[in-house]
Every structure is written in structure tokens, then in C-alpha cells.
Design brief:
The protein is of the alpha/beta class. It folds into 2 domains: 103 residues, Aspartate Aminotransferase, domain 1, CATH 3.90.1150; 222 residues, 3-Layer(aba) Sandwich (Aspartate Aminotransferase, domain 2), CATH 3.40.640. The chain contains 12 helices and 12 strands. It has a 7-stranded mixed sheet with strand order 2-8-7-6-5-3-4, with helices on both faces. Helix 3 packs parallel to helix 4. The longest helix is centred in the C-terminal third of the chain and has 25 residues.
């Protein structure tokens, strides 16, 4: 029997591996998916409840009110904001809008594991550049990897899963070396957690460089991971192209109203972000006191460079009651969750070194 052929590119797409979930009936802390440990604010829950009454209707396809609120909060034109089903989907739309089949996309590695998937599905060819042993992006190496075939470069800051943020001076040097017709995507999914005074200011960079696009999300700091709301900030011409490539009605009505409510409650939410940053600092200090060599983190997670022992460590942590995210052969990413989860994680890491 003959079969309908699939795209050959699908054979080359690596599977996306989600963070481990707590098994039904079990008790464990889930610090494997970089989720915000706090539940939605009461005002956000009210917005979600109110929006649920209208799920028989299609949402506003262009998320007009939300786009306007985002634009106002960032000080950019509404025409520059494009929303989508999480920043992962928006990245796919960005690449679809600019990549012709065979175009190259330079990316750091290890970085966000959805990058190779999005590049391949957009018809592009990924050109990975190794991340340094300190967890920092090798921007000099990434600039050197740009050729006449390069259509875009992905810059994850802070880098997921290693944690460091790109600094302003190194990003300025990088952008000066990249041709102005090559798109530079600054993925700032964790920007609200950044406290490094030397970190690049994405909005300022966007204002000065027409070839820069920002990616942001409501999943992390705003705690709406389950509603999938992300967005891009781009020059109006680029934004219009991304909008054309976007999935129609890609952000649900519930997601739109929850994101709007979250923006209105941003001061309350940033207090929670500050608490996560405090516990991140405690986690890093605790690990280093035990003898771990870990990169600085400007996100809501910490990287343990365990190499080939990553999977073994994750199994041991799971048995102890904390679910972490192993990257086989490289290391383990540990999200900052409840303070009790950090306490237990530090017990596991101390025990691991004492073996």
C-alpha cells in the first residue's frame, strides 16, 4: 500500500522534551520547567473566569487591546507588536516570515531546545555555535559564523538553560559585526529576572537597530505558562510580515484578558519576581558553598554542568522528591520554585558531592 509522504525535513527535527511532571498520586516539587511557582493573582483569576463565558466566540484575531497595552508599557508603536501562542510559536512565525528554503540561521548551543525545531520547520538550516564553559554565549564566534547565506541569528538572553545574560558591550560589538540585512532575534523570555547592571537593554538595542526583533512572553514572570501568550517587537514592516505568517486567532480570549490583567497588576507581580530572584541568589550561594562550580544566572533557573552524569543526577533528585530537567551529556537545569523545593534541592546536591 502506498503512503502519503511526509516532508523529509521532519526526519531531522529533534523532539522537544518537556520538563518532567509529577506522577498522579505522587508528591514532589516540579522544578523542571522554569514555571513561576506562584498561582495567578486574584485579579487575574477574575479576568480568566469572566473570559471563560465567551469561549463560544472567536477571540480578537489581532489581540488589539492587549497589543496596545503591551506597546504602551514598552514605549513602542502598536504596529510593532505581534502576539502569538507563546514566544515559541512567535519565533516560528518570525523565521517563517524571513527564511527561504536553505537559508542559514546561526544559534548558540546549548540554548533553548526549540530553536533547532523552529529553524528546520521554517525551512532553514541551523548553524550552532558552542556556548562557553562559563555558560555565556560566544558572540564573537556567532558573528564569525555569519555568511552570505545567513538570514537570522538567535541570541538568547538570559540563555536557557545556562543562565547568564548577554552584556551591553559584547552585544554592541556583535551587532556592529553583523550585516544590517541579517535579522537578529533577541529572545528575552526571562528579561524580568535580570539584575546584572551590565546586561544589555533589549528595548534600547531595538530602538537603535532596525534589524533587531525582541521576543518576550507572559509565561515566566507573569505566571501564565498554561495560557500561552507571547509576543514579538519589530519594526512595523517586519511586524506586518510576521503577522501574515502567524496562526489566525493564535491567542485565546482567555489568554488575552489574563495577560491584560497581568499587565495592570505588574507591580504586584514584580514583587513575586523579586522573591524568586532572592531565592535564586540563595540557591546559587548554597551550591557554591557546597563546592559546585555553576554559572551566574539572570533567569529563574540555575545550571548544573554535570556532563554525562546529568541523567543520573536527575533520577536521584526525582527519587528525593524534586523533578529537575536533565540535558543528556551536558547538564541539569534547576528552576527556582518554592523555597521548600530549593531546600530539598540543596540537600540532594550536597548528598551528590558527598558520594
Amino acid at each position: 500500500m502506498s503512503r502519503v509522504p511526509l516532508r523529509q525535513a521532519l526526519a531531522d527535527v529533534p523532539p522537544y522534551v518537556p520538563g518532567a511532571r509529577v506522577p498522579v498520586g505522587s508528591a514532589a516539587y516540579k522544578i523542571s520547567s522554569n514555571e513561576n511557582p506562584f498561582p495567578p493573582l486574584p485579579s487575574v483569576l477574575v479576568a480568566i473566569s469572566d473570559a471563560a463565558a465567551d469561549v463560544n466566540r472567536y477571540p480578537d484575531m489581532y489581540a488589539t487591546e492587549l497589543v496596545g497595552a503591551i506597546a504602551e508599557s514598552l514605549g513602542v508603536a502598536s504596529e510593532s507588536v505581534v502576539t502569538g501562542c507563546g514566544s515559541v510559536a512567535v519565533l516560528g512565525h518570525v523565521l517563517t516570515a524571513v527564511c527561504e528554503p536553505g537559508d542559514e540561521v546561526v544559534l548558540p548551543w546549548r540554548s533553548f531546545e526549540a530553536y533547532p525545531i523552529a529553524i528546520t520547520l521554517a525551512g532553514g538550516v541551523g548553524v550552532p555555535v558552542p556556548v562557553g564553559s562559563d555558560g555565556r554565549l560566544d558572540l564573537e564566534g556567532m558573528a564569525a559564523a555569519v555568511t552570505s547565506r545567513t538570514k537570522a541569528v538567535l541570541v538568547c538572553t538570559p540563555n536557557n538553560p545556562t543562565g547568564p545574560a548577554v552584556r551591553a558591550d559584547e552585544l554592541a560589538t556583535f551587532l556592529a559585526a553583523v550585516p544590517s540585512d541579517v535579522l537578529v532575534v533577541l529572545d528575552e523570555a526571562y528579561v524580568e529576572f535580570v539584575r546584572d547592571a551590565q546586561a544589555a537593554d533589549g528595548l534600547a538595542v531595538f530602538a537603535d537597530h532596525p534589524n533587531v526583533v525582541l521576543l518576550r512572553t507572559f509565561s515566566k514572570a507573569y505566571g501564565l505558562a498554561g495560557l500561552r501568550v507571547g509576543y514579538a517587537v519589530a519594526r512595523p514592516r517586519l511586524a506586518a510580515g510576521i503577522r501574515v505568517a502567524s496562526t489566525p486567532f493564535g491567542v485565546s480570549h482567555i489568554g488575552q484578558l489574563a495577560a491584560l490583567a497581568s499587565l495592570r497588576a505588574s507591580n504586584e507581580l514584580m514583587v513575586r519576581v523579586d522573591q524568586i530572584v532572592v531565592d535564586r541568589t540563595r540557591m546559587l550561594a548554597g551550591l557554591r558553598k557546597q563546592g559546585w562550580s555553576v554559572p551566574d544566572s539572570e533567569a529563574n533557573f540555575v545550571w548544573l554542568p554535570l556532563g554525562d552524569q546529568a541523567s543520573s543526577f536527575a533520577e536521584r533528585a526525582g527519587r528525593a522528591g524534586v523533578l529537575v530537567r536533565p540535558f543528556a551529556g551536558d547538564g541539569v537545569r534547576v528552576s527556582v520554585g518554592e523555597p521548600e523545593a530549593t531546600d530539598l534541592l540543596l540537600e540532594v546536591t550536597a548528598d551528590w558531592l558527598a558520594r
